[in-house]
Amino acid sequence: MSRILFATSEAHPLIKTGGLADVAGALPIALQNLGCDIRIVLPAYGDVLERYKSLETVAEFYLPGTAGKIILRATQLSDSTVKVLLVDHPAAFARKGNPYVDEHGEPWPDNAERFTLFCKVIQLIALDQVQLDWKPDLVHCNDWQSALVPALLKQIPSAPPSLFTIHNLAYQGLFPQSTFNTLGLAPALWAPHALEFHGHLSFIKGGLVFADRINTVSTQYAKEIQTPELGYGLEGLLQHRQHVLSGIVNGIDGAVWNPQTDTLISQNYSSTTLSKKKVNKLALQKLYKLPANKDALLLGFVGRLVEQKGIDLIIELLKTIEDLPIQFCLLGTGDKQYQQTLTKIAKQNPNQVGVNIGYNEKLAHQIEAGVDVFLMPSRFEPCGLNQLYSLRYGTVPIVHNVGGLADTVIDTTPETIKNNTATGFVFNQPTIEALRQSVDQALEIYTKSRTWQKLMKNGMKAQFTWEKSAKEYLNLYHEILKAQSTRQYTSYQNYQFNGRTGF
Ligand code: ADP
Ligand code: GLC
User: Fold this and answer.
1) Residue 228 and residue 314 in one domain
2) 168 lines ligand 2 (CB under 6 A)
3) Ligand 1 center to residue 467 CA distance, Å?
4) Are residues 366 and 476 in the same domain?
5) What residue's CA is closest to ligand 1, atom 4?
6) Scanning 140, 200, 261, 318, which has the fewest C-beta atoms within 10 Å of its C-beta?
7) How far is the CA of 215 from the centre of ligand 1 (A)?
8) Cross-strand partners of 6
9) Whole-prediction pTM
10) CB 150 within 8 A of CB 162
């Protein structure tokens, strides 16, 4: 049985800002079901400590260069027996609110220090130096917040190997050189073939350069990040490492996202009782104070209001719907500018547009269940979970042909209607014209009830389960462990000599 340490900066239901939390809240359980001995390691944020009062203390220790004791506390993930280790260091993590940004949306000024501490603790756990009496065979790191771990591990001959998963290359953990100098990291790591990126410290390069394998959350995104368009200057490094880079699409947590059992929605339904979905539509219209109208095409969006998600395209679209039988409801938080513009549009057109600025787990479920169409015009999307939830809820997604959206939604054409594979509408250019064309197509097909039902049912049949994806992760773990046992230890010095400059 492989022992896996799963490092993440968020995990549902403990703490969530986006899809990483959904992944970290479900994939470890699926891996445990496949026989892994898996433990999650997560910072003990203020909000987590407040909600989980009776936590067991499993270790206490000091970290060189860090003032104050570090306490490792433990809990379990949801109803499972997957253990979650919480890194409790009040100065770094006790503050309440978002894990990464303050109440004004600005990154916490000490993020580099906070997540370096997190990574150093993960390193100690990985080396079994905190008296847990448990040494992982492999450390699975996710996104920049735990990306220094592969770099730290590679400096130690007896350390386990690592996998680094890129959930979003746009977030890299970049900090000035002056910050690097204060973090107590090996000076040799300040190099273009290590953590330096154009004069800055790049956390994510720790994963991209030093992990034994790298994966991202869809096959298409794994290709896209090797191009200048979506590589953010890291495409050269990713091309260099393409032999260890792959894609595994995310799954759906069926215990949380299932229209048959979802306790957060007004009316449960399945693919055989689809007419009941309308109850959720009417409830949602009421919630958003939109006129009750079964026949209007109700569009929805849930997500972070950031450029990635193509919010500008949604705003442009909303300016053109006045004469159409369309309604729209949105739930999200993010950039102030988007929040203000969307709120203004809703005020100007309250019969068609409803906007809720905020984070609301229950409402997210109600939108998935209540709308006819889910919009995801993302400019890029590593995987995307909402289109998967939409498919599961018989809600037809309209998506831009990128990343995980391209991998998971099948466009509606005469052929895909005929062979029962069509699940949504996929447009190729991130332009208002292309989005509008898909919306027009959806409007037209919506009036053909039988074809629309087909789309809903095809989507509900799609199998994006964590069990399937977890099997792929397990294979990847086995490949890493096999390679590790047959290969001589690759020291950090080897990386220096083999490394290319200019990454
Ligand atoms: P990303 O990770 O880029 O934000 P994903 O589609 O992978 O995008 O995952 C987003 C997750 O966060 C989904 O579960 C979505 O429902 C949830 N989510 C995003 N914004 C909100 C919000 N304002 N309220 C409730 N849930 C939200
Ligand atoms: C990121 C991506 C999103 C992905 C999620 C979970 O936040 O933006 O596309 O679904 O991570 O992997």
Assistant:
1) no
2) yes
3) 21
4) no
5) 18
6) 261
7) 21
8) 40, 140
9) 0.95
10) yes
Token pair 């690592």 is found at 162
* Strand ordering across the sheet containing 56-61: 56-61, 70-76, 83-88, 37-43, 3-7, 138-142, 162-166, 213-216, 245-247
Q: Considering its fold, how many domains does the chain have in total?
A: 2
Whether residue 64 has a cis bond before it, omega within 30° of 0 = no
> For a substitution probing ligand 2, which of 12, 171, 217, 302 has the most ligand atoms within 8 Å of its CB?
217
Task: Please count the CA atoms within 13 angstroms of the CA of 186 that sit on its side-chain side.
Answer: 17
What's the sign of the alpha-carbon dihedral 316, 318, 323, 324?
positive
Q: List the domain range (segments joined by +) for residue 48.
A: 3-251+469-494
Same domain, 164 and 293: no
Q: What burial letters (b/e) apply to 323-342, b meaning 16+ CB within 10 Å?
A: eeebbbbbbbbbeeebbebb
On whether both 382 and 473 belong to a single domain, the answer is no
Same domain, 455 and 485: no
Output the ligand 1 site: residues, CB below 6 A. 18-19, 22, 302-304, 331-333, 359-361, 364, 383-386
User: Tokens 């979650």 map to which residue?
Assistant: 84
**For atom 19 of ligand 1, which residue has the closest CA?**
303
Q: What length is written for the chain? A: 503
Per-residue pLDDT of the chain (503 residues; tens, 9 = 90+): 799 999 999 999 999 999 999 999 999 999 999 999 999 999 999 999 999 988 999 999 999 989 999 999 999 998 899 999 999 999 999 998 899 999 888 999 999 999 999 999 999 999 999 989 999 999 999 999 999 999 999 999 999 999 999 999 999 999 999 999 999 999 999 999 999 999 999 999 999 999 999 999 999 999 999 999 999 999 999 999 999 999 999 999 998 999 999 999 999 999 999 999 999 999 999 999 999 999 999 999 999 999 999 999 999 999 999 999 999 999 999 999 999 999 999 999 999 999 999 999 999 999 999 999 999 999 999 999 999 999 999 999 999 999 999 999 999 999 999 999 999 999 999 999 999 999 999 999 999 999 999 999 999 999 899 999 999 999 999 999 999 887 644 544 444 434 433 33
**Strand duo 83-88 + 70-76: pairing:** antiparallel
